[in-house]
Design goal:
This is ABC transmembrane type-1 domain-containing protein. This protein has 3 helices and no strands. The longest helix is centred in the middle third of the chain and has 161 residues, at about 40-200. It is rod-shaped, with a radius of gyration of 77 Å. By secondary structure, the chain is mainly alpha-helical. The chain has helices spanning about 1-35, 40-200, 205-235. Helix 1 runs antiparallel to helix 2 and helix 2 (about 40-200) packs antiparallel against helix 3 (about 205-235). It has a domain at about 150-235.
Length: about 240
C-alpha cells in the first residue's frame, strides 16, 4: 500500500508538471501572436524550444507513469501471491487441525473400545470365578454329605455287628444254660428212675418226677425259641 500511495503521488506531480508545461507553451504562443515582426523569430525559437522541452517532459512523464503502473502491477502481483500463500498456509493449518482432530477422535474411539473389551473380559472372568466357586462349594458339600453317609453306614454296620455279636453271645449263654439245665434234669431223671427201680415206693411218685422233668424240658425249649425270635427281630430292625 505504501508503494501504491507513493506511485499515485508521483503520478499527480507529473500531471501537475505536464499542466504547467502546457500553460507555458500556451502563453508563449499568445505572446508571439501579440508581438511585432522583430520578435516573431525569437518567439518562434522559444516556442520550439518550449515545445521540445514539453514533449521531452511529456515523454518522460509517460515513461514514469508506465514504470509506476508496472511497479504497481508488480506490487499487486506480489500482494496477490502473498495472499495466496497465506490462504494456502491457512488451508494447510486447517487440514492439519482436521487431521489431528480425526486422529484424536479415532484414538478416543479405540480407547473406548479397549475399555469396553477390558470391562467385558473382567465381567466374564468374574462370572467364571463365581461359577467355579459355586461348583467347588457344591462339590465340597456333596463330598461332606457322602462322607457323612458313609460314616453313618459304617456306624450302623458296627452297631448291627455289635448287636449280632451280643445276640450270639446271649444265644451261646442261653444254649449253655439250657444244656446245663438239660443235663441236670436228665441226671435227676435218671437218678429218679434208679430210685424208683430200687425202692419200693409207689408208681405215682415216679410218674410225677418224670412229669417234672418233661415240663422243665418244655420250658427250656420255649426259652430257646424266644431267644432266637428276639435275635431275629433285632437283626431285622438293624
Amino acid at each position: 500500500m505504501r508503494f501504491t500511495i507513493s506511485g499515485l503521488v508521483s503520478t499527480d506531480n507529473k500531471l501537475v508538471l505536464l499542466h504547467n508545461a502546457q500553460e507555458s507553451s500556451y502563453s508563449s504562443t499568445n505572446s508571439s501572436c501579440s508581438g511585432g515582426s522583430g520578435s516573431s523569430i525569437s518567439s518562434s525559437i522559444s516556442s520550439s524550444s518550449s515545445s521540445s522541452s514539453s514533449s521531452s517532459s511529456s515523454s518522460t512523464l509517460v515513461v514514469v507513469v508506465v514504470v509506476v503502473i508496472v511497479v504497481e502491477v508488480v506490487v499487486v502481483g506480489v500482494v496477490v501471491i502473498i495472499i495466496v500463500v497465506e490462504v494456502v498456509a491457512v488451508v494447510v493449518v486447517v487440514v492439519k487441525l482436521v487431521v489431528v482432530a480425526v486422529v484424536e477422535v479415532a484414538v478416543v474411539i479405540v480407547l473406548v473400545v479397549v475399555v469396553v473389551v477390558v470391562l467385558v473380559a473382567v465381567v466374564v472372568v468374574a462370572v467364571v470365578v463365581v461359577v467355579v466357586v459355586v461348583v467347588v462349594v457344591v462339590v465340597v458339600v456333596v463330598v461332606v454329605i457322602v462322607v457323612l453317609v458313609v460314616v453313618i453306614e459304617v456306624v450302623v454296620v458296627i452297631v448291627v455287628l455289635a448287636v449280632v455279636l451280643v445276640a450270639l453271645v446271649v444265644v451261646v449263654v442261653v444254649v449253655v444254660v439250657v444244656v446245663v439245665i438239660v443235663r441236670s434234669s436228665s441226671s435227676r431223671s435218671s437218678s429218679n428212675n434208679n430210685s424208683c427201680r430200687s425202692s419200693s415206693s409207689s408208681s405215682s411218685s415216679c410218674s410225677s418226677s418224670s412229669n417234672n422233668s418233661s415240663s422243665s424240658l418244655v420250658e427250656v425249649v420255649v426259652v430257646i425259641v424266644l431267644v432266637v425270635v428276639v435275635v431275629v427281630v433285632l437283626v431285622l430292625q438293624s
